Amino acid sequence: MIDFLRGQIAYIETEYIVLDVQGVGYRVFCPNPYVFPAKGQEMVTVFTHHHVRDDAQLLFGFPTKDEQRLFRKLIEVSGIGPRVALGILSGGNPDGVIAAIHNENIAFLTKLPGIGKKTAQRMILDLKDKLEGLGGATLFNPISADTAAEDTLAPGWPEAKEGLKALGYTDAELDRVWAKLKDQLHPDEAVDSLMKKALKMLYAG
User: Which residue intervals define the domain Helix-hairpin-helix DNA-binding motif class in the entry (predicted)?
Assistant: First the structure.
């Protein structure tokens, strides 16, 4: 089992990074590859999950130990494989996912890629009591999972993201833009405003 790798980024693609570890390039699939520094800037540690299938061996990688642990919990749920778990983490901040599970927020969970109502219910049933110690201490405040969801995704962002995907942009491109955009928004930002601001960043590269 490969639990982590330490090296320099050789290059970044939309679904994975290639990490140069003493001259060996490891392809590591990530929820958002662009959270890692650009090519060759510094040494980075990538927490990994080594997934072995009959026809392939795949590495999935994360910037934090908590995200790695959450991924491993997700793939224990019936019907959630590594690719779906990766989509969950790309579609929602790990803290928001944990809070939504704890607070049984099915509406939030079903907005995540590949998650229908039955799978969301299964996630809650299987994981609600197994996530202690993951994420921030405020996640389990019972005020409302909607509050946690708004901290993760502005109310209009899921709709704006779907509109941008219809224009041909990928999840990875939009996640990269969201990471830059989310701290510049008003709480009541309209969908069309979100799309315009995101498009401006996308055009700028």
Answer: 72-91, 107-126
Q: What topology does CATH give the domain 66-148? A: DNA polymerase; domain 1 (1.10.150)
3-state secondary structure of 123: helix
Q: What are the pLDDT digits (tens) for 63-87?
A: 999 999 999 999 999 989 999 999 9
For residue 5, the cross-strand partners are: 46
Q: Show the tokens assigned to 198.
A: 């995101």
Higher pLDDT, 166 or 121: 121
Domain map (residue ranges) of the chain = 4-63, 66-148, 157-204
Exposure string for 98-136, b = 16+ CB within 10 A, e = fewer:
bbbbbbebbebbebbeebeeebbebbbebbeeebeebbe
Architecture of domain 4-63: Beta Barrel (2.40)
- Listed in order, strand segments (DSSP E) in 57-170 are 57-62
CB 56 within 8 A of CB 49: no
